[in-house]
Design goal:
With about 300 residues, the chain is mainly alpha-helical. It has a domain at about 50-255: Up-down Bundle (f41 fragment of flagellin, N-terminal domain), CATH 1.20.1330.10. It contains seven helices and six strands. It has helices spanning about 5-30, 45-95, 105-125, 185, 190-205, 210-260, 265-290; strands at about 130, 130-135, 150, 160, 170, 175-180. The protein has a two-stranded antiparallel sheet with strand order 1-2. The longest helix is centred in the N-terminal third of the chain and has 55 residues, at about 45-95. The chain starts with a helix and ends in a 7-residue tail after the last helix.
Length: about 300
């Protein structure tokens, strides 16, 4: 087959163009750190990468939910633990008040402290996180001015204005978990408010028998609060486990994504060097061809 100079020039131009394109693509993968710049580069790999990116973004949202749930559980546990402390102090005061050595006046002084403890327990029941009451069920905000989930009136009665609904958060695909205790179950049914009010009344009335009876009521309230703390511990443990699982899943997905889309630098630099050598060789060959003329054949 007869090969003309024009054919040689055309082939040289095509080879140089292909080598230049390879150089450009390899430089791009090195500078960007990614093996594709547009969908047409590697459509299958890009599809996998997009799916994994979506999974990573979804898991990050689950992690944010878990972190919020952990903060909620921690705030609730802190409030309930402090209520437990107040009950323990109330029991100690009740035992002290039941002592025969106490006078009517000293018992009234103890009653004054019990009143303070009752007010503190109500305040702890109204603990909030980010402007939301943690012990109010799902009725966490938007109370009328001067209102809150727990309200103490002048007669020592406590009213609960929240609800008994659960707050749940999505912590994994298809899985929601409860993060709260409602005030009715956690405090109102414990008898804590009634026990403290009865103890205060018994102390003010200097009734030793009623003071002794109040110790049993406070013990029952303490047992109830301990059970609520165990429930919070279960919630916290569940959230901690989900946090670990989400972190592991995120790391695994990021590793898979890196394997698919990140440039293998050693391989890329070797390819770049090979393309540069091929490009320089093609230029040298082209220069020799272009020097050829009729004089070379005379």
């Amino acid at each position: 087959m007869r090969i003309t100079m024009n054919s040689m020039y055309n082939q040289l131009t095509m080879d140089l163009g292909k080598t230049t394109s390879n150089l450009n693509d390899t430089n791009s993968t090195i500078s960007s750190g990614k093996v594709f710049r547009r969908p047409s580069d590697k459509p299958v790999e890009l599809t996998f990468a997009l799916n994994i990116r979506g999974a990573v973004a979804e898991t990050k949202q689950f992690q944010r939910n878990i972190q919020y749930g952990q903060a909620w559980a921690k705030a609730t546990e802190s409030a309930v633990t402090q209520i437990q402390d107040r009950l323990m102090r109330s029991k100690a005061l009740a035992i002290q008040g039941a002592n025969d050595s106490q006078s009517a006046e000293s018992r009234k002084a103890i009653a004054s402290e019990i009143q303070t403890i009752l007010e503190e327990v109500v305040a702890l029941g109204n603990t909030s996180l980010g402007g939301r009451y943690v012990l109010a069920g799902t009725k966490t905000k938007d109370y009328p001015q001067g209102q809150a989930p727990f309200m103490l009136d002048k007669d020592g009665n406590v009213t609960y204005n929240g609800n008994q609904e659960d707050i749940t958060l999505n912590v994994a695909q298809g899985l929601a978990t409860k993060i709260n205790l409602d005030g009715h179950s956690a405090l109102e049914t414990s008898g804590i408010f009634e026990a403290l009010d009865l103890l205060k009344t018994a102390l003010n009335e200097n009734s030793r028998a009623d003071i002794e009876n109040s110790v049993g009521d406070i013990d029952a309230s303490i047992e109830h609060i301990n059970f609520q703390l165990s429930k919070l511990g279960s919630i916290s443990n569940s959230l901690d486990n989900r946090a670990d699982m989400a972190e592991t899943l995120t790391l695994n997905n990021k590793e898979r994504l890196s394997d698919i889309q990140d440039t293998e630098m050693v391989e890329a630099f070797n390819s770049l060097k090979a393309y540069e050598t091929a490009y320089q060789a093609a230029l040298a060959a082209g220069a020799r061809i272009m020097k050829t003329s009729l004089v070379d054949y005379i």
